[in-house]
Each structure stands twice: as C-alpha cells, then as structure tokens.
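name: query_chain
kind: protein
chains: 1
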Amino acid sequence: MDRRISEAEAREYAAMNWALAARAEAAGNIKLAKELVAKARRADELWARNSDGGDRLASR
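structure:
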C-alpha cells in the first residue's frame, strides 16, 4: 500500500486540524487543541516539503 499523500491531501488535513483545534480551544478543551495544533503543524511541514511554495510555510 502506498502511504504517500498528495499535496492537496496534506493541505486539506492541515486545514481540518487547524479548524478542529480552534473549535476545541473555543470549547475549553486546551489539551485536545494542543494535540490538534501539533498535528496541523506536522501536516504543514509535510506540505512545505512537498510543494513549490514550501519556503513560505517553513517559516510558520
């Protein structure tokens, strides 16, 4: 099974995790929000490594 994901999938995964982190924080679940932010950052890093515009995300 090929475990590589496309750039679009990485972007979608990152966006989903950023949105979920914001909702968790708004609901007062800080621990979950921190976990989701960590996942979103990892997805952003993956996107940065695999995209032509990686320089702008790497500084995040």
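note: Residues 24 and 32 are 6 Å apart (CA to CA).
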